[in-house]
């Protein structure tokens, strides 16, 4: 029975990340697909009302079930959040393995994750278990198959809290029923450049889906990244939820494709100039804020999608999106950096990576 | 989750702001987003996100709760209600539920049933789980039950509107389905960790 490597962030950082792959379906626009399942163990108070002792028991039982099932393969990691430094916690957050609430740590939180970060379980987050599976591109159906199996494997040795009428019982009533939250991260630069993004966001939200974006100091969305997910979790089967979400996302992807095509046709030099300038910034800047980096990388990604660059591929851009965040930068630098130092170091890393000096 | 601006509609637009290391988020409804022509206006000078955020964390009620019957009641009944409403199993109180939007244990779903029932309508598509069960079994009968529940709702509405002919048709359909329905059994008992004793620390 394989055992987890414990509290070793280095091991995680040195492995390649599955969802940063560029091989997924519609990978030019859909960056990643994720499904999360909320589960609790019967006859145990939810983490918010549980004692330290309860949470330790839960963590031990869940880790035991994961080991026994072999569902995370032979090589997987476990992290006791309380044992980690602030920067290491931040690393987990930047890699999208944990929630902000989880790393704030009220005690007893454990993350168990497969070496390629494609699947994992947060233990003692808001619920006893938060199963998570992440894949590149738009492929929610495949992700559902994987997480459904993981869930079945764990349930064979964990007694889940389940009600015949309400389904899986969760600490927050917004998750009750299937406990399922599916989300897709989309890169929508052309919808924004052509001024259609707000209408798109409003349209999506009217369909009962949630949209999240990353916004900066100014008025603009940073990096043109949007996450679309289901809102309700009860009254539909898992397949219905996923089908409905996928359908809307396919439409959004088509809108984005049309917007790209029409920009290329009608505003070709505006678009090329936008991308070329961003590339110039990334290649030559000596001070790069995270906001400017996100914006420029978004433009670079668009250029790669349009086939403008032979020396840069999507995987590299995805890697850059990850590494420009402050905890990763500091880890890379091997020391704590203040904001000014971070902006300088960020510029250096990006310059190096784009000139092929560094093969991280 | 309810809209932070109007505190009325369910929030369907979620905005996160990251400035270097700091992340803030806000949750608003489509209507308010349109009015404020979000996301642009949300971040201009008149709109202090930090302040808004402070306010929501203070009042972060349970999504949909304010929409339920509870908000219509006056202060007095609410206090009485709060005094009574405590989960016998875990000791969680209604005010804790309102403050955190979270429940303390599985039993809380029964303890706070009345409050939750109203909220479910705004949060979900029906009050019945029709998805998988532990271990992957899918029960056909729950789909039928959902259908029956929806039809009963329709029937009520038709009766209210005095459309008796249509109501009769729906009633017959419900009767037909009810006869064919497998009884959903509640027999499956789950053992807790404590009893099963497999929680030894390795
Ligand atoms: Zn509103
Ligand atoms: Zn309780």
Q: Could you explain how this protein is built, in words?
A:
The complex is a heterodimer of chains A (360) and B (202). Helices cover 46% and strands 18% of the residues of chain A. Chain A has helices at 9-14, 52-69, 86-94, 100-104, 140-155, 189-193, 197-206, 238-266, 268-284, 290-305, 314-323, 326-333, 339-354, and strands at residues 5-6, 30-39, 76-80, 110-114, 119-123, 129-136, 162-163, 167-168, 180-187, 209-215, 221-230. Chain A has a 9-stranded mixed β-sheet with strand order 1-3-4-5-6-2-9-11-10. A two-stranded antiparallel ribbon of chain A has the order 7-8. Chain B has helices spanning 30-35, 49-59, 75-84, 94-100, 108-111, 113-123, 140-160, 164-180, 193-196; strands at 13-19, 22-28. Mean pLDDT of chain B is 64; it is low at 17-23, 36-77 and 182-202. Strand 10 of chain A pairs parallel with strand 1 of chain B. Residues 3, 5-6, 9, 28-29, 31-32 of chain B line the site of one zinc ion.
Q: Kindly state the number of beta strands of chain A.
A: 11
User: How does the major sheet of chain B shape up?
Assistant: 2 strands, antiparallel
Question: Could you say which overall geometry of chain B the principal axes of the C-alpha atoms support?
Answer: extended
Mean pLDDT of chain A: 89
| Residues in helices of chain B, as a percent range | 40-55%
Are there runs of chain B of 5+ residues with pLDDT below 50, and where? 17-23, 36-77, 182-202
Task: Specify the overall morphology of chain A.
Answer: globular
Low-confidence stretches of chain A: none
- Level of helix content of chain A? 40-55%
Heteromolecules bound? zinc ion
Radius of gyration of chain B, in angstroms, nearest whole number: 22 Å
N to C succession of SSEs of chain A: EHEHEHHEEEHEEEHHEEHHHHHH
Q: Which class of secondary structure composition applies to the elements of chain B? A: mainly alpha
User: CATH H level of the largest domain in chain A: which superfamily?
Assistant: Glutamine synthetase/guanido kinase, catalytic domain
Order of helical and strand elements of chain B: EEHHHHHHHHH
From the helix content, strand content and strand pairing of chain A, which structural class follows? alpha+beta
Q: What oligomerization state is this entry in?
A: heterodimer
**Approximately how much beta-strand content do the residues of chain B carry?**
5-15%
Q: Helical element count of chain A?
A: 13
Q: Kindly, what is the distance between the CA atoms of the first and last residues of chain B, rounded to a whole number of angstroms?
A: 40 Å
Interface with most residues: A-B, 77 and 74 residues
């Amino acid at each position: 029975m394989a055992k987890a490597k414990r509290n070793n962030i280095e091991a995680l950082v040195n492995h390649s990340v599955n969802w940063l792959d560029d091989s997924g379906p519609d990978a030019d626009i859909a960056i990643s697909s994720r499904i999360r399942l909320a589960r609790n163990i019967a006859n145990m108070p939810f983490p918010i009302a549980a004692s330290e002792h309860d949470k330790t028991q839960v963590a031990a039982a869940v880790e035991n079930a994961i080991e026994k099932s072999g569902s995370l393969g032979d090589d997987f990691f476990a992290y006791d959040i309380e044992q980690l430094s602030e920067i290491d916690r931040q690393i987990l957050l930047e890699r999208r393995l944990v929630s902000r609430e989880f790393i704030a740590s009220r005690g007893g939180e454990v993350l168990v994750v497969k070496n390629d970060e494609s699947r994992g379980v947060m233990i003692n987050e808001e619920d006893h278990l938060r199963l998570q599976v992440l894949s590149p591109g738009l492929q929610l159906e495949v992700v559902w198959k994987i997480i459904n199996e993981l869930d079945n494997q764990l349930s064979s040795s964990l007694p889940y809290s389940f009600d015949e009428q309400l389904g899986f019982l969760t600490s927050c009533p917004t998750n009750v029923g299937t406990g399922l939250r599916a989300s897709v991260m989309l890169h929508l630069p052309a919808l924004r450049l052509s001024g259609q993004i707000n209408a798109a966001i409003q349209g999506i939200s009217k369909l009962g889906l949630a949209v999240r974006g990353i916004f900066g100091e100014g008025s603009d969305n940073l990096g043109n990244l949007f996450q679309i997910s289901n809102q309700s979790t009860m009254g539909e089967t898992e397949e219905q939820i996923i089908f409905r979400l996928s359908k809307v996302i396919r439409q959004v992807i088509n809108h984005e494709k049309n917007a790209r095509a029409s920009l290329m046709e009608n505003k070709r030099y505006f678009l090329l100039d936008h991308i070329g300038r961003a590339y110039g910034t990334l290649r030559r800047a000596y001070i790069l804020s995270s906001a400017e980096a996100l914006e420029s990388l978004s433009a670079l990604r668009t250029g790669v999608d349009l086939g403008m660059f032979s020396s840069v591929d999507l995987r590299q851009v995805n890697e850059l999106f990850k590494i420009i965040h402050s905890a990763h930068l500091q880890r890379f630098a091997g020391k704590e950096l203040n904001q000014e130092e971070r902006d300088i170091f960020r510029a250096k890393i990006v310059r190096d990576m784009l000139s092929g000096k560094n093969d991280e | 989750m309810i809209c932070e601006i109007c505190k009325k509609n369910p929030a369907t637009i979620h905005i996160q702001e990251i400035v270097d290391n700091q992340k803030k988020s806000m949750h608003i409804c489509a209507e308010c987003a349109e009015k404020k022509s979000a996301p642009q206006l949300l971040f201009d000078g008149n709109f202090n996100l930090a302040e808004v955020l402070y306010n929501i964390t203070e009042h972060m009620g349970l999504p949909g709760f304010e929409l339920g019957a509870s908000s219509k009641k006056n202060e007095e009944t609410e206090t009485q209600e709060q005094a009574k409403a405590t989960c016998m199993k875990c000791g969680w109180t209604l005010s804790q539920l309102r403050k955190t939007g979270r429940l303390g244990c599985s039993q809380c779903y029964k303890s706070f049933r009345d409050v939750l029932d109203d909220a479910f309508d705004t949060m979900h598509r029906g009050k019945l789980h029709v998805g998988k069960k532990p271990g992957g079994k899918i029960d056909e009968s729950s789909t039928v039950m959902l259908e029956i529940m929806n039809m009963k709702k329709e029937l009520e509405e038709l009766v209210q509107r005095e459309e008796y002919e249509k109501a009769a048709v729906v009633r017959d359909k419900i009767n037909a389905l009810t006869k064919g329905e497998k009884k959903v059994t509640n027999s499956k008992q789950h053992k807790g960790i404590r009893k099963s004793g497999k929680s030894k620390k390795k």
